[in-house]
Amino acid sequence: MASHSDTLVVFFGATAGANGGKLGSDEREIILLVWQIVDLHEKKVGKLQRRLVKPDSLELTDQSKEETGLSVDELYKAEPLDKVLQQFQQSVSAELKALGRSSYTLCVDGPLIIRQALHPEASKKNLVLPECFYSFVDVRKEFHKCCPNAGQVQDLTLPSILEYVCIPELPLSEQVMGLKEVRCMVQLSLHILAEPYNHKFSCFEAVKYKLESGACSKTEPVDSETVIRARGLPWQSSDQDISRFFKGLNIAKGGVALCLNAQGRRNGEALVQFINQEHRDLALERHKHHMGSRYIEVYKATGEEFLKIAGGTSNEVAQFLSKENQVIIRMRGLPFTASPQDVLTFLGADSPVTDASDGLLFVKYPDGRPTGDAFVLFSCEEYALNALKKHKQILGKRYIELFRSTAAEVQQVLNRYMSTPLISTLPSSMVPMPVLATPPYLATGSTRDCVRLRGLPYTAAIEDILEFMGEHTIDIKPHGVHMVLNQQGRPSGDAFIQMRSADRAFMVAQKCHKKMMKDRYVEVFQCSTEEMSFVLMGGTLNRSGLSPPPCKLPCLAPPAYAAFPSPAMLSEAALYQPPLLATPRTPQPPHSPHPTPTLAYYPPQHHPAQLYMNMNMNYTAYYPSPPVSPSTMSYFASPPGSVALAAQQPHAQGHVASPMMPQHGALVRMQGLPYNAGVKDILSFFQGYQLQPDAVLLLYNFSGQRSGEALITFPSEESARRAVAERANHPLSGLPIRLLVCCD
Questions:
Q1: Are strands 491-499 and 450-454 parallel, antiparallel or unpaired?
Q2: Inter-residue contact 523 to 451 (CB < 8 Å)
Q3: Helix 179-193 and helix 139-146, axial crossing angle in degrees, nearest 10
Q4: What is residue 488's predicted lDDT score, i.e. its pLDDT?
Q5: What contacts 327, CB < 8 A, 6 or more positions away?
Q6: Cα distance between residue 153 and residue 157, in whole Å
Q7: 344-359 pLDDT, tens per residue?
Q8: What is the 3-state secondary structure (H, E, C) of 400-428?
Q9: Per-residue pLDDT tens for 241-290?
Q10: pLDDT > 70: what percent of the chain?
């Protein structure tokens, strides 16, 4: 309300659970509202009003029963919250009219009843609160302004304040919860309005009507005492959903940053910045409150974490986000050849883009190649909703995904793609730098932890394979992507991928078999490392079995040839095929004084054994696997046809520095599932573990029927083992479920 209000409405509320300093912390509903009018000019008071409120859940804690003196029977006869709020408005309006006043402001003992109880409950029940509940004065802060020597605001209580100003306690007959608190606040208000204080109520607090969008720069300071991390969000939740979860608390402009995983998808976490520490502390009290059927964990976070996600430095992004009060939609899966006009035509006349092509932001790699992502601005909610109706419609030959987005997500996606590409190109001058050496040999084995991709387009590059693999790229072993070239050095249409376990290889074969890549479907088969090695050495793998490579035949193998060096030879050389080297480079000596692994590249030696291999072997270009976080690690594809020497310098204690490896999730195998069990049933079985639908893979037998088993991907091994310990042998549709952590 306006700061010139001439009337106070002293307001109090209680819930069916915790009250006092913990009011609203347990999500219990309001069961009692009490109010009374104070005329600031005439120093008069109105009639004391008390209303019971019927909650949806007629359950009271023992503490609430004792403090309020109310019973379930009394509440059953009461009106629901929306009716009581109507009665509040009618009563206050009638009294104001009788007094000849035009405006009023709520006066409360602390902000909890407004911020932590009334607004969250109204939001959950889809109630529209009257305007008066978006502004209030706190009697404790008003008193502290009069008497700053009385102590800190957070330490003040209503009894201690009354004692400080020598106002006597109410008689026992009037100490009924609600009535007592309102009478004490009225007495205190009249006391500070009179001599010698002559106080004027001026510390008006506001509750924001809606979330304000905005851009954040990495150079802006962010106070760590204002940031929280919310965890366990539904994957489809938007910044508006998070704002609604924290309804009643004021989030800073552009203060919601949804976190993304390695594949650019939301991971169920968000960082939220509030306007001050007081609101952050109130947000922490909502730990394990519910968003729909899911509870949300709320923890402290730092300003650095927020800036890492939400901050940006691109002038292009800043200009794109400079238009305020815009609705942002993210488009994913665009054809790489899509132009701004193609996107505008796809969205249509019923969802016009703000400023036409200027309202589009295409996400690109540092070299200018498109990623298939774009962000679009709409001037109103109606246009955005029309655009979202085109989710999974076709543009060109690809279906397009559309999602609500935020300014922070725009920054995060741009930061991710512009920081370091997944597969970097080699610098023009080969200066030694810390990288992960490509493995020079393949250990053979019968474990089927590999997959074979057959039928690749001949123009397919490593980036196309990574995009084809999608979310499964994080399960690829380091340096586990092998492109098979023919004897002319051209792509053969085959590739092999080494996965972290047989279960993960099976999952990829199930999910990716016959998926499309550049207008061609690609076959994906599970295979073993031994089978992969045979093909990479020149053998064939077909339905009739393995045909050994020429170099495996005793009559053809020259005595000096060793296709797979022993582990003792690894520190000396890694083998690449000479014909694939376009321009041999001269060796560069390492200069770094730090004990980190470095690579020096040398031109190939034309050894007879190698010439023999050129005639009889398939050529294989070895590429490193993608890192989990492109911003934390740099991988470089070694130049084909060169010999890479890993110059590893020991530490002072004699240990060899090892590169940091990416962290992965963990698989749990479910056995004994009912044959009609679906993904939703499994997600319900693991309720509370923050799993997404795409983390569940139902397994089928050779007849195409469900096998009664499933593979579940957990975000960490710890959470997987905890789930097995807590949920093993629990029933699903009456059947006990066996759970096993899959070993990598």
A1: antiparallel
A2: no
A3: 30
A4: 59
A5: 377, 378, 379, 380, 381, 383, 384, 404
A6: 9
A7: 999 999 999 998 888 9
A8: EEEEECCHHHHHHHHHHHHHCCCCECCCC
A9: 999 999 999 999 889 988 887 667 788 899 999 999 999 999 999 999 99
A10: 75
Structure tokens at 427: 């610098």
Nearest-angstrom CA–CA distance, 551 and 504: 31
Cβ atoms of residues 132 and 163 within 8 Å: no
Q: Which single residue is written with the structure tokens 């597969």?
A: 423
Which of 520-534, 551-565, 655-669, 699-713 has the largest mean confidence?
520-534
Parallel, antiparallel, or unpaired: how do β-strands 476-485 and 619-623 relate?
A: antiparallel
Strand stretches in 590-637, DSSP E = 598-602, 619-623
Which residue from 279, 296, 276, 280 is spatially nearest to 288, judged by alpha carbons?
296
Taking alpha carbons only, the member of 340, 342, 339, 368 closest to residue 356 is: 340
Q: pTM above 0.70?
A: no
Token pair in block for residue 460:
């397919």
Q: For position 718, what pLDDT does the model report?
A: 87
Question: Structure tokens of 110?
Answer: 């602390």
Q: Where are the alpha helices (DSSP H) in 458-598?
A: 462-469, 502-512, 529-536
How many residues are given for the chain?
744
What is the C-alpha to C-alpha distance for residues 14 and 50, in angstroms, rounded to an integer? 11
Sign of the CA dihedral with 683 first, then 686, 690, and 692 last: negative
Q: Tell me which amino acid residue 364 is.
A: K
- Pairing of the two strands 735-736 and 49-52: unpaired
In 3-state terms, what secondary structure has residue 123? helix
Q: Which H or E element spans position 296?
A: strand 294-300
Residue for token pair 């704002």: 243
